[in-house]
From TrEMBL:
<keyword id="KW-1003">Cell membrane</keyword>
<keyword id="KW-0449">Lipoprotein</keyword>
<comment type="similarity">
    <text>Belongs to the alpha-carbonic anhydrase family.</text>
</comment>
<dbReference type="InterPro" id="IPR023561">
    <property type="entry name" value="Carbonic_anhydrase_a-class"/>
</dbReference>
<protein>
    <recommendedName>
        <fullName>Carbonic anhydrase 4</fullName>
        <ecNumber>4.2.1.1</ecNumber>
    </recommendedName>
</protein>
<dbReference type="GO" id="GO:0009897">
    <property type="term" value="C:external side of plasma membrane"/>
</dbReference>
<keyword id="KW-0862">Zinc</keyword>
<feature type="signal peptide">
    <location>
        <begin position="1"/>
        <end position="19"/>
    </location>
</feature>
<dbReference type="GO" id="GO:0005793">
    <property type="term" value="C:endoplasmic reticulum-Golgi intermediate compartment"/>
</dbReference>
<comment type="subunit">
    <text>Interacts with SLC4A4.</text>
</comment>
<dbReference type="InterPro" id="IPR036398">
    <property type="entry name" value="CA_dom_sf"/>
</dbReference>
<keyword id="KW-0479">Metal-binding</keyword>
<dbReference type="Pfam" id="PF00194">
    <property type="entry name" value="Carb_anhydrase"/>
</dbReference>
<keyword id="KW-0336">GPI-anchor</keyword>
<feature type="domain" description="Alpha-carbonic anhydrase">
    <location>
        <begin position="21"/>
        <end position="281"/>
    </location>
</feature>
<keyword id="KW-0325">Glycoprotein</keyword>
<keyword id="KW-0456">Lyase</keyword>
Length: 308
């Protein structure tokens, strides 16, 4: 779409006159140039060197035995929750009583909200990538540290985000039904809707599949990009049916006029720099149950050759 130059000029002047140049994703800046700050112009800490998201190169991740399983509390409690279109994503309020501990974290953390990132292209919607590959969506559950009073105001581990990559699966994911249905009620920014009672666990892979994850130190992926986030990216993916994934792009809009579908709300990858990614299990390491299955035939073979 090409706008007449005069219209563009007016738009720029108006946004400056309001004294606000609000942050946006590239897709928004491209559809309305000059109207907002695109990712390479974001302020705050966004141009610093320990930013998120990153590409996780799985074979370079360092095994860390301190990365034990998480304890989830309140995650299975069914609650009525408010879901809102905040102009950048769809956000579910989680307070007051979901918490995590363990998982190699030094403290207990309280869940505050969860939200998602997505695209119409099923290989462009996650923020983190694995070995250069993006998935369809990414869900972030944001937690804040239970603060000890004597602590500095902005410790590096003030926030813990649990990240779940979402890929296309063949089956309808019943756990996501209420959230996807809620999208019909929050198509425009600032709209909100109260969902029927559901639990956070409804949205996640089975708990016994959450033992393995990547860990690194990074930032929020939206302004002001504070470098105060301990990231956990789980190896097990959420699976949604294609229509459930596409509902986000189709039903939500960035703007009140419903001119631009909310999609590609994904920050570009940031350099890893001098950071290391850790893993709770070495990449490609055999599962304990796979070992006997491999050893047994080998032993049998050995014994057989000795006896013959
Ligand atoms: C939800 O929207 C109503 C107006 O429609 C507003 O009064 C209320 O504060 C909103 N709630 C949240 C949590 O944003
Ligand atoms: Zn996020």
């Amino acid at each position: 779409m090409r706008l007449p130059l005069a219209v563009l000029a007016v738009a720029v002047v108006t946004s400056r006159a309001n004294g606000e140049s609000h942050w946006c994703y590239d897709i928004q800046a491209n559809s309305n140039p000059g109207s907002c700050q695109r990712p390479d112009q974001w302020g705050g800490e966004c141009q610093k060197s320990h930013q998120s998201p990153i590409d996780i190169v799985t074979h370079k991740a360092r095994l860390d035995h301190n990365l034990k399983p998480f304890s989830f509390s309140g995650y299975d409690k069914k609650e009525k929750r408010t879901v809102k279109n905040n102009g950048h994503t769809v956000m579910v309020s989680l307070e007051p009583d979901a918490r995590i501990s363990g998982g190699g974290l030094a403290a207990q953390y309280r869940a505050t909200q969860l939200h998602l990132h997505w695209s119409e292209s099923l290989n462009k919607g996650s923020e983190h990538s694995l070995n250069g590959q993006r998935l369809a969506m990414e869900m972030h559950i944001v937690h804040e540290k239970d603060t000890a009073k004597e602590e500095a105001p902005n410790p590096k581990d003030k926030i813990a985000v649990l990240a779940f990559l979402v890929k296309e699966g063949n089956e309808f994911n019943e756990g996501f039904r209420l959230l996807v249905e809620a999208l019909d009620h929050i198509s425009k920014p600032e709209m909100n809707f109260t969902m029927e009672a559901s639990s956070i666990m409804d949205l996640l892979p089975k708990e016994n599949k959450l033992r393995h994850y990547f860990r690194y130190q990074g930032s929020l992926t939206t302004p002001t990009c504070d470098e105060t986030v301990v990231w956990t990216v789980f190896k097990e993916h959420i699976q949604l049916r294609r229509d459930q994934i596409l509902a986000f792009s189709q039903k939500l809009y960035y703007d009140q006029e419903k001119k631009l579908h909310m999609t590609d709300n994904v920050r570009p990858l940031q350099p890893l720099g001098d950071r290391l990614v850790s893993t709770s299990r070495a990449a490609g390491q055999l599962l304990p149950t796979a070992l006997p299955a491999l050893l047994l035939p080998t032993l049998t073979c050995l014994v057989a050759s000795v006896l013959s």
